[in-house]
What we know:
The complex is a heterodimer.
Chain A: E1 4-12, H1 18-34, E2 38-44, E3 48-54, E4 57-69, H2 71-83, E5 87-96, H3 101-119, H4 126-131
Antiparallel strand pairs in A: 1-4, 1-5, 2-4, 3-4
Chain B: H1 33-36, H2 47-50, H3 63-66, H4 70-85
Amino acid sequence: MAHRLYETFYLMRPDLSEEDRNAIMQKFQGVVTEQGGEIFNLDPWPIRRLAYRVGPFTEGYYCSMEYGASPEVIAELTRTLRLDERILKFITDKRADEFDRDTVIAAHAAKKVSREEGSTSSSEPSGETGTEEE
Amino acid sequence: MNHTTTDRPPRPERTERPSSPRRRVYTRRKVCRFCADKAITINFKDFQTLGHFITEGGKILPRRITGTCAKHQRLLTTAIKQARIMALIPFTSAHSLKR
Lengths: 134, 99
């Protein structure tokens, strides 16, 4: 089936170590890629105070994952997210009905470059940081 | 026909129209922020931008206050609600966490 452009944003418990968080991110990346999905952006946030209490927690780690996948992948990903008790909240947003790999990746790269130039022009060139994601 | 103005008395200086009893107070036309700058996209993760469109108490501000166009207000509403679900912005200030 044709791929669509999705974004899944989830909230992890604040008591997780960095290793645990990386493992969780790997896990969900795996769910998407196993079924032919393609991730083009993974953006873990530093720990953040929540706007309201979620269970006993007042803070947590957010992570955003942007990918192209078929609708069936979403069902499976949603199921795994629900089963995982380390995930407090999650939301999946369909950004576009079509996933054109090249244009999306190009647009994402361009956005990243412009953001880096705007915020920290003194830091290293964006080409260096771009490769870290691989 | 040749109209000449020489024989006419000079016209009085044009002045402001006399104000009608229910004259509208002139306000600057508000422009939709998202139409003015196409570079800004509405996304639920961008809680800083969304923060401009909610009240202190966490309510969504009406279009007549913010000047947002109908199309973008719809997108904005969705984004604010998504951000609320994700605990990025509060549903109400009553549940806000004390620092």
